[in-house]
Amino acid sequence: MSKFNFFSRVASKRVLGGAAAGFVGAGTAAQQFSSQKQARIQEDANAEFNKGYGYYDVVKLPAGCTEGFQIKNNYPIPNQVPAASASRKLPPGPLPGPDLPVPSLDPLDEARWLEVDFRTDPEQYCKLIKEYCWAGNSNNDFNIHKNKFRDWYHAPWMHWNPNGREPINGLTFERPTPALELSKDQHVLRQAWAIGFYNAIGASVFGQIWKDPGNPKWDSHVKFPLGTCVFKVLMTEATEQEVPCLKGAPTLQAVIATPESAAMKTASKRKDHAEPLRLLQVDFAVRDDRIPVGPDGNGWVFGTFMYNGDLTDQDPWDRIIPVGLQWGSDPQLTPTAAAAGEKPKQSWINPDADALLTKLGGQRADLTKRWGVGGRLNGPVDNFKSACASCHSVAENNSKNAVELLPPKDADESTFMRWYRNLGPGQSFSGGDNWSADHSLQLMTGYTNYCLWKNSANGLIHKAKVIIPFSTAGREQKVLEANSRPLRSEDVD
Ligand code: HEC
Asked: How does DSSP assign 425-487, residue by residue?
């Protein structure tokens, strides 16, 4: 039984219990009232599911702007996606690019990176994924509705959160980057905002859970199929003067948080106008279980790119260099082992990206703060106290908003290493009936947002961190507080 059903059951028991103690017939009226209310909640949930942006009064279109971000959420349901066969040989031929039509094949046929060994040729692996993600997107400012080559989708319910989607391009608040972190010339805290996209195979998982958008069902561990590719563009408020490698960076417009709000690590107060943000980082994750899940890998390959304005590619979106790849969390690499000089074996870091950070001369030039924990992969705007695969390993059906992305500050080594396990599909971070989200933090975040929304619509008490009182104003205030933490990291020094 999912936790979510648990809440509904508590609700109906309470109403029925009151009726049983009272008058004959009142039970039917109460039941009727309760089912009318549930029907209304489902209708509202359906409307929220289709919203591109909008969180109370926090997020709205700036004056004079008539059209905002639209979500693409007509997810395929699993049996509409051709079954992928792991042993299938990929066909020879050119990659689909801006001038080539995409053949309508089994989507796995396009996953050309699965032909490449990411340990021996990581740059080629990154290149094939970048071309796949860029085709029809980079020339349309990542408005996936305009992509004529391939279907991409947005994750649902990423809007309903103080840090949720802004109204122009649907970006979410990622992380405040403290002064001097990116470069020696970055003198103030700057905001990073991002948007992610799932290919059709990956989006079929959303199609399954949200088959009935007003009444989602998540009652088992999920597994993203082979061929899944998801990527994310991360845009920064920092300028070229502050971070010289941003020279000539492509931009996306966004209505971001006020500086005061961002300094409090929340985007619950937004500016009243849009401004350009610059491309700094591109993340991706692809299902690739050629290394079986276990001590040597987690069934995914995470990767990241960084913008480098010294590159001369004509299209500025192409001026990105791979930072690295990560296919597991190195579960043996304890802080003690790392301090003794042991290096990760499940991350590859590009020496050119190291050189770029050294040149920028920010706090990231320091080897201990450069990428992720113990030398594992992380991106330039990420918290160096974490790493891609470990932060993502916590992804599960987090209906009580109780999951922590990072270990507690005072964690002993064995507690700390819980965040560095290679968990496969079917193994959730917390165990029990906390269903695994198979490393998808957007699936987790969106579902948590939905659960908080639904509990607040029901006027129920949220057991974990949120006590939602019964007055509307108080309720909204508490929800604001409950969600007020940056999506990517809550721990900024
Ligand atoms: C401290 C935690 C944290 C770290 C470290 C982190 N991420 Fe994420 N990532 C998130 C959260 C939270 C989301 C969902 C919300 C969002 O999209 O902003 C996310 C979303 C994503 C997505 C969209 C798909 C999904 O899982 O929801 C991709 C792809 C991704 N991250 C890749 C990476 C890569 C690659 C790295 C390392 C370079 C990385 N992440 C490091 C927290 C983290």
From this structure: TT--SS-TT--B-TT-HHHHHHHHHHHHHHHHHHTPPPSSS----SSHHHHHHHHHHHH-S-S
Give the residue carrying structure tokens 């190291």.
354
β-strand partners of 297: 294
Candidates 13, 59, 51; CA nearest to 155 is 51
**Residues pairing with 173 in the sheet:** 193
Instruction: Please tell me if the CB atom of residue 441 comes closer than 6 angstroms to any atom of ligand 1.
Output: yes
- The amino acid occupying position 112 is R
- The whole-angstrom separation of Cα 27 and Cα 313 is 70
pLDDT digits (tens, 9 = 90+) for 177-191: 999 999 999 999 999
Q: Which residue is closest in CA terms to ligand 1's atom 37? A: 388
Report which residue type is found at 251: T
Domain positions in the chain are 50-483
- The pLDDT of 375-383, averaged and rounded, is 93
List pLDDT tens digits, range 80-139: 554 443 333 333 344 444 444 444 446 677 899 999 999 999 999 999 999 999 999 999
pLDDT in tens, 468-479: 333 344 445 555
Judged by phi (left if over 0) then psi (alpha if -120 to 50, else beta), residue 107 lies in alpha
Check: pTM over 0.85? Answer yes or no. Answer: yes
329 lines ligand 1 (CB under 6 A): no
Per the structure block, which two tokens stand in for 471? 């007055």
Distance 265 CA to ligand 1 centre (A): 17
Q: Rounded CA gap, 57 and 51, in Å?
A: 14
Nearest CA to ligand 1 atom 17: 442
